[in-house]
Amino acid sequence: MATSPFSPTEQVKPLAPSSRYSVRSHDLEDDVASLHIKLSQRKYVHCCGLASAMFLILAVIAIVLGFTVFHVKGPKITMNGVTITNGSLTDGSNITIMVDVSIKNPNVASFRYENTSTLVYFNETEVGEGRSPAGVAKARRTMRMNVTVDIVPAKIVAVPEFEKESKAGALTFTSFTRAHGKVKVAMVKKSVVVELNCTMVYNLASGGIQAGDKCRRRVRL
């Protein structure tokens, strides 16, 4: 009887599996994971860059609009003329004058102003006062209004300089007009005050009054 080449006491050991394929599998998984991380990082960087670029563009647009279109500019107030509608200084009756004033609004939004007041002075003494109702100067338009001012001759005669100027045949007055309002551009609402100081000359011989050329404007934002 043929004998077995292996001893009965010896056990057959199974062959150890090859580790080459296991190492390759782990390497492939690591490469895939690394590639996935790199792609994710690239997408993140791309998204951050795109968001930063959009934010920068919006910031530039906001700055440009803030200094151009949405920038609140001061309205321009002008005295166009003065007319006597009633009374005379020679007979001592109260004098009523009509002051023609215009407000030019250069903004892209309306300028809403409250009651406009006009004061008249003779040698720094107030001798007359008038008011006009509230109104609206539309965007990039000019609003004209008439301010009625009542002047009291008794106050003029009481001024020490009256006698000297009356001998010259003309009296020089100063008018002060003030309009307070608001301009709302987009979400920005700004308070605006426009003021105008002008000279007026009253001719005693003709009884007429003429607005002088010397006017000073002031705008407070």
Question: Roughly how many Å is the radius of gyration?
Answer: 44 Å
Q: Are there runs of 5+ residues with pLDDT below 50, and where?
A: none
In terms of DSSP E residues, the strand content is 35-45%
Cα distance spanning the termini: 123 Å
Q: Total helix count?
A: 3
- Main structural class: alpha+beta
* Biggest beta sheet summary: 10 strands, antiparallel
List keywords for this structure.
about 220 residues, alpha+beta, ten-stranded antiparallel beta sheet, 10 strands
Structure description:
This protein is an alpha+beta fold and 221 residues long. The chain has three helices and ten strands; from the N terminus they run αβββββββααβββ. It has helices at 20-67, 153-157, 162-168, and strands at 76-86, 95-104, 111-113, 116-122, 125-132, 135-137, 142-151, 170-185, 188-203, 209-220. Strands 1, 2, 3, 4, 5, 6, 7, 8, 9 and 10 form a ten-stranded antiparallel sheet that branches. It is rod-shaped and about 115 Å long. The mean pLDDT is 81.
